[in-house]
Specification:
- With about 70 residues, the chain is mostly helical.
- The protein folds into 2 domains: about 35 residues; about 40 residues, no CATH class.
- It is about 75% helix and about 0% strand.
- The protein is built from 4 helices and no strands.
- The longest helix is centred in the middle third of the chain and has 20 residues.
- The N and C termini lie far apart (about 50 Å).
Length: about 70
């Protein structure tokens, strides 16, 4: 028996935030039929470079409240 997507959504929205996030990630992953190995490698390199910049002091973090304030000012 096929369930109505609206009913499935109602049920999903009753889940705790962590479960909804996991469900959303799983649903998004299910849309990718192929894995772009080049993209995966590029993301890994980017993450590594950003961590290195943070660790060396070349980059600094900004508190979320400050980021939100800056966005709101735009």
């Amino acid at each position: 028996m096929t369930q109505d997507p609206a009913e499935i959504l109602k049920e999903a929205l009753r889940l705790p935030p962590e479960a909804r996030a996991a469900l959303a990630g799983t649903l998004l992953d299910s849309l990718d039929e192929t894995v772009d190995e080049g993209a995966e490698a590029a993301w890994e390199a980017e993450i590594s470079a950003r961590l290195k910049a943070l660790d060396s002091g070349q980059s600094a973090t900004v508190p979320w409240a400050e980021v939100r304030r800056r966005i709101a000012e735009r």
